[in-house]
Amino acid sequence: MKRLSTYLLIALLSTGCKKYLAEEPRKQASVQTVAQLEALVDNATQFAYEPDFSTILSTDDNEITKELYAASPSAFTTDNLQYYTFSVDGVENASSDALWNGEYKKIFTANLILENIDAVTGDDSTRERVRADAHFIRGYSYWVLVNHYAAPYSAANLESPGVPLKKTTEYTESLKRASLKETYDFIMADIVEAQKVTYDDVDPRRAWRVSKKSIAAFLSRYYLFTGDYDNAIQQANLALATTTAKLVDFSTLQPGTPAYYTNPIDTLRYLDLNSWTPAKFLYWPESFYTRYTYYSSQWYNPSTALMNLYDQQHDLRFKGFFIHNGGRRMSVTYRGTTRYTFFYDGRYIPAGFTVAEVLLNKAEALARKGDINGALGAANTLREKRISPYTALTATSQPAALKAVLEERRRELPFTMRWYDIRRFSVNDDPSDDVTVSRDFYTVSITGVDMNTPHTYTLNNKRLLVPISQKEIDVSKGQITQNTY
Asked: What is the 3-state secondary structure (H, E, C) of the chain?
């Protein structure tokens, strides 16, 4: 009988692992039908959420000024400030790593499905679809992990450490980190298996299930990130042939319930999306596959640089999602605050591949290949649904077109793709897109913030690799090695 992986053990320590281990053999013995395995896949909230502090806190999309912090220090946890200031020790020695634990828990569930899928009874067509789902879940989770804890993809980095590849539920399986190349090869092998799915397009009733179109959407991202622009364009075109996933015209979004405050008097006006719970946002029409960046603190702090990229009078994204004086929701009366909020009172932002992202993947790949008109056309297809009155992006040179497309990408995908983009920009062959992220803040340590000592922090290339939790290293008995800083 299979036992729990080390990663799931760590994730479950706070709930009593001895009790869970005692019950696990009975749970697995009770898996007898493909319907039971399908129910695991249809537990959408288990797979859809990514508590990703690097994408939320470690990029130039985020800014916590000294003035804001001084006005309300209690609004910011020391743990979160470790990511904000690019700490190594503070992240490595945190009490837990929700992203690492969450993705390996998804991988464990996928492995559990794959190990039982041929032994259970049930309809063969359902069996093959569930098998494809499990391969895709595992491959995508490894893509998330390798784009945090390992070096960015490049020819020079292929033999550097990737992440541990858990291919089974056996606790005795090696925890040694595979190479970056081995990790990417394993991801692609899972995607090839997932492509055997017979469902062509997104099922709007269950957008967390894999389809050929959702795989093409993912591959448009995968190939863009590995520098294979021809394949990125080809896969984007395959995905955009969808008749199910559709761009939402943001001019049709409805206002939500305002929030009123006194002392001082203030009114915060939200879109209706702000009140959407999972019962609604899991069915966001733009999704090829449902994944969401999750932030329990609910306070995404947009930087001045990010906000200045928008046409603040006509860009419906800025007008709808950037809430002036939004700190009032967090009991902060300091007037110099803005809060970014999308779904469920600011907890969730779409991070799975959407029609919007695929258009931008295509636009960037075309721009890098020198197709100015094609690149701008793809980006402007998106802008038609985001700007009122609509104005098109224009450019007369390849560098200008690329700059325009990358700015549009940042406007569309804040707090979700910027971390990934900064990493890949650092290793591609175009220095014009390199990003420097600096913080003018106070001295931050594991124990707190010294407001008497200002400090400037800069994100360097080594810290583009998120430190692996020391708890993971310890429990692996040295099999897992830390990144070098």
From this structure: CCCCCHHHHHHCHHHCHHHHHHHHHHHHHCCCEHHHHHHHHCCHHHHHEECCHHHHHCCCCECCCHHHHHHCHHHCCHHHHHHHCCCCHHHHCCCCCHHHHHHHHHHHHHHHHHHHCCCCECCHHHHHHHHHHHHHHHHHHHHHHHHHHCCCCCHHHCCCEEEECCCCCCCCCCCCEEEHHHHHHHHHHHHHHHCCCCCCCCCCCCCCCCCHHHHHHHHHHHHHHCCCHHHHHHHHHHHHCCCCCCCCCHHHCCECCCEEECCCCEEECCEHHHHCCHHHHCCCCCECCCCEEECCCCCECECHHHHCCCCCCCEHHHHHHEEECHHHHHCCCCCCCEEECCECCCCEEECCCEHHHHHHHHHHHHHHCCCHHHHHHHHHHHHCCCECCCCCCCCCCHHHHHHHHHHHHHHHCCCCCHHHHHHHHCCCCCHHHCCCCEEEEEEEECCEEEEEEEEEEECCHHHHCCCCCHHHHHHCCCCCCCCCC
